[in-house]
Amino acid sequence: MADLSVNVAGVEFKNPIIPASGVFGYGREYEEFYPLSKLGGIATKGTTGTLRTGNLSPRIAETPAGMLNSVGLQNPGIDTFIEKELPNLLTKDTVILANIAGSTPEECAEVAAKLDKTDVHMIELNISCPNVKQGGAAFGTSCTSAEAVTAAVRKATSKPLVVKLSPNVTSITEIAKAVESAGADALSMINTLLGMRIDVRTRRPILRNNVGGLSGPAILPVAVRMIWQTANAVSIPIIGMGGVSTGEDAIELMMAGASAVQVGAAIFTDPYAPIKIVDEMNDFLDAQGIASVRDVIGTVQPW
Ligand SMILES: Cc1cc2nc3c(=O)[nH]c(=O)nc-3n(C[C@H](O)[C@H](O)[C@H](O)COP(=O)(O)O)c2cc1C
């Protein structure tokens, strides 16, 4: 058995695999399949200051090697999360990353301040959501607004702060550096890539929201590239994700520079995907004679 434990920003994970935000709810539906303690951690559904109902349906479209979603930030609001969901999650002997979002830096900071008073292990700030004060462009698409929202949340909490980057940018490394300078303890990447599909018979977009986020195996190479570029540009650790569905995919993101790995869309086709991936990583490491998964982090040897 290889040593699968990793450390991200001072937090110990028993293995590197974490169901990604938005595909695992608050864990309740998956407890029936396996003990959640088998997971390295759990990233919870994005939570905002108050209840949100999300976007209108249809909110999911299939794509070659992936899926588009426009679920939006459907969630019960931070107070309900803290009261009804977090206490159950904190009994599961796994690292809990509370994923948060908001329409303004103030809303994000207010949500983080409430979590600061709980025993949650890490806060993951999603900066792919629209900033209403800046005309609706996502916080994560400009250095100035990415830096401002990170700084506001940093002031509100002393919990380890992971900032989740949007891939829908020209230069991922510039955004990553801005977020690092504003006080993030770690980065997670990548969120979904903006996409669109059209029903050619009705000439209507398949998603009621017209556009949505692409995830699944189709985006793995984009994630590998962005993680590799970012790992070479910042000194804080990276939690990688994007298209991972096998143990070797997860190892690939770690070789690109990730210290841990989240699994998203793959869980929709197989709820056991995260624990299978943990086993497959172990098999790979054993077959290669590698004693610790930490020994593969950032080891790609570029030409
Ligand atoms: C249905 C769905 C809902 C999502 N909701 C969130 C969310 O609330 N917050 C967030 O930061 N990311 C959200 N994501 C993005 C995922 O956490 C992940 O970054 C992305 O799907 C890429 O990983 P994957 O290819 O393994 O799915 C969502 C993804 C999907 C498919």
Question: How would you briefly describe this protein structure?
Answer:
By secondary structure, this protein is α/β, with parallel strands linked by helices.
Name given to the CATH homologous superfamily: Aldolase class I
Give the distinct bound molecules.
flavin mononucleotide
Oligomerization status of the protein chains: single chain
Identify the CATH architecture. Answer: Alpha-Beta Barrel
Give the SSE order as H and E letters: EEEEEEHEHEHEHEEEEEHEHEHH
Do you know the CATH topology? TIM Barrel
Question: How many DSSP-defined strands?
Answer: 16
Residues in helices, as a percent range: 25-40%
Low-confidence stretches: none
Strand content: 15-25%
Number of domains: 1
CATH class bucket: Alpha Beta
The largest sheet has its strands arranged as 3-16-15-10-9-8-7-4
**Morphology:** globular
The tally of helices reads: 8
Rg to the nearest angstrom? 18 Å
Structural class comes to alpha/beta
Largest sheet: 8 strands, parallel
Describe the structure.
The chain is of the alpha/beta class. It has eight helices and 16 strands. It has helices spanning 78-89, 105-116, 143-156, 172-181, 220-231, 247-256, 266-269, 273-288; strands at residues 6-8, 11-13, 17-19, 41-43, 60-63, 66-69, 95-100, 122-126, 161-164, 186-189, 193-195, 198-199, 204-205, 212-215, 238-240, 260-263. The strands form four sheets. Strands 3-16-15-10-9-8-7-4 form an eight-stranded parallel β-sheet. Strand 7, helix 2 and strand 8 form a beta-alpha-beta unit. The radius of gyration is 18 Å and the shape is globular. The two termini are 32 Å apart. Bound molecules: flavin mononucleotide.
